[in-house]
Amino acid sequence: MSYPERPRSNLWFLLPIFFGIIGGIITYFILRNDDPKKAKNCLYLGIALMVAGLVFNAIIASIIPEFGPGFRVNV
């Protein structure tokens, strides 16, 4: 079944920007029949932001020194 393509607002890109891969998947399923190109781009944006977040967190985690015996925590 073929649906006519309708242009949708660019505000749909905010969903994957704020909610990452989950927002990209939600946007994809909402827009896939009306504007398939924008739906795929939103999904790709969510995936790209998820990967960028993972890389950023890995870099930050490698910079922070590990907890050693000199951390002075009394439990």
Characterize this entry briefly.
This protein is mainly alpha-helical and 75 residues long.
Provide structural commentary.
This protein is an all-alpha fold and 75 residues long. The chain has helices spanning 14-31, 36-63. Helix 1 packs antiparallel against helix 2. The protein starts with 13 loop residues before the first helix and ends in a 12-residue tail after the last helix. The mean pLDDT is 87.
What is the CA-atom radius of gyration, in angstroms?
20 Å
User: Helix segment count?
Assistant: 2
Give the structural class. Answer: mainly alpha
- Low confidence ranges: none
Order of helices and strands: HH
Indicate the percent of residues in helices: 55-70%
> Strand share of the residues?
under 5%
Distance between the termini: 65 Å
The mean pLDDT is 87
Instruction: Report the sheet with the most strands, covering strand number, pairing sense and barrel closure.
Output: none
Anisotropy-based shape: rod-shaped
**What's the β-strand tally?**
0
